[in-house]
TrEMBL record:
Taxonomic lineage from the root: Eukaryota, Fungi, Dikarya, Ascomycota, Pezizomycotina
Protein name: Caffeine-induced death protein Cid2
Family: Belongs to the MIX23 family.
Compositional bias annotation for Basic and acidic residues: 184-195
GO cellular component: mitochondrial intermembrane space
Chain residue ranges for the region called Disordered: 175-202
Amino acid sequence: MSRASSTSAPQLTPQFCFNERLLRDFLRISRSTIDDSITQNLNALFTPARQGFDPSSTAIRQIDASEGKQIEPAACQSFKDKVLFPSWQVRSDVLNYCAGVATSPDPEDPDLILQQTESAEDREHIVDDRLDPYAARFLPREPRTESLANLVRTQRGVEDIIRARTWGLVTERCGGPSESWEEALNKWRENKQREQAPPSTE
């Protein structure tokens, strides 16, 4: 089985964020490559040859011989440092960037003029939608920054759930200190920053 590699970052532009289908697709593909396939990714790290051949293993059909077995700490660490954390970081960077775009003024919103016109007109309408089922047409159109902010918020929630599940499987198979995924990711970030810091001239 080929080993997973961390997903590469897309080119971050406001256009990328506002193309919500593109943003969702990037997140979905990254998650399916790393997190949704976490069991297969961990199994690929397992090297049964180290334990020697067990003749009894051919007597029963083994669905997945490596399932549930501890993986070598070095292989686990390498997977976390080179694949798992970089992929999580890329997704965090994308969501943080798009959150910034969502809170910035958006003069290029193609619907902006329409929204301004609609909201001026709609202020004059006071309609009870129980009496007029078409009243919703008078509701002001949601600015795309607001729509993007909602999407980012939702995706951050999804990200928390996915990472917690993935981390549970990683710690179960790899052992190691009992820390949360947030703590582990922060440690990895700090190490990366130390590695990238220019050497002291003192």
